[in-house]
Amino acid sequence: MAELNKQVTPSNDDNVLLRVENLSQHFGELKAVDNVSFDIKKGEVFGLVGESGCGKTTTGRSIIKLYNITSGSIYFKGQRIGAGTLSYKNAIKDAKKKFKDEVAELKNSDDPDKAAVIAEKKAELGKLISDMRKQIASAKYDNSHVDKDLITQIQMIFQDPIASLDPRMTVREIISEGLVIKGMKDKKQIDEMVYDVLETVGLVREHAGRYPHEFSGGQRQRIGVARSVIMKPELIIADEPVSALDVSIQAQVINLLNDLRHDLGITILFVAHDLSVVKYFSDRIGVMYFGKLVELADSDELFKHPLHPYTRSLLSAIPLPDPDYEKNRKRITYVPLRDHDYSVEQPTFREVSPNHFVLCSDSEEEKYRSIIGG
Known about the structure:
This protein is an alpha/beta fold. It is built from 14 helices and twelve strands.
């Protein structure tokens, strides 16, 4: 069980704002996110990258509680805001099956003390079931008693700047909706806050009375940023906020987020698949593949020493404005069955060098350490 056998994860110090432990998000048989662990420190930009469908957006949506997580725990400012129960239930199920098999084997054996051994194993099973049921009850309690004011300190910028804005609401209504939901009733104060945040994101107060269809894609994304910033969050989850925009507009939105990060002290989880953008913007980067986190390191370290084959394949796909380089650039393909042999050794997420984590087996870890050391 993931909760009982935790993998190596980044250190949990006082500077950590968000901590994700063994997060899994399943939709039926589909494991969209599978046992992912990482932390985000106050004031940093944490980039989460990977191909479409790898679980990046689902991870962000799980953190902000748009989904009830399947298993694992999510801590924000030291308080558990999300908890799943499947891993505890699976632990009970597995323990019962193991007990049944062991009892059947003992009953067919000649062990003179088999009755005492069975009684001892039954007691151990009872204790484990009791502990797991307490964990399930604790998880359910934490999910239902989360401080709503705490959750509003996490805001999200959505990927699609068109679909994420209600076309029947004015910009003023869209941006101020969170304030109204929190109970603010002073219309004059709300308007002043809306005007201030519009100017902060590079728009003007006259835009407040307009509707989303009257704006360009870049302006609509700025409205989405304003809607998040007006709540004075400590953490913003930016879900591919520039993927639907032109390159020149992408740079404007990224620079805007960078300015807000420094001016307001906001921490950002930046979800994207464009590694060149992520490198420019992020302090640390986590790489996801098929629901799993396969590598995590500082931005410079990841680009200098990419270890996991999937990370190397992603980096090889980054184009550069150099015709000679592009002519000779060799793409690296990633084929899990070819690049790994997990028939004997199973991979775990482990630290192969200081603050550089990779999903690997024992033999792969030895190889990766020699690459960095050599």
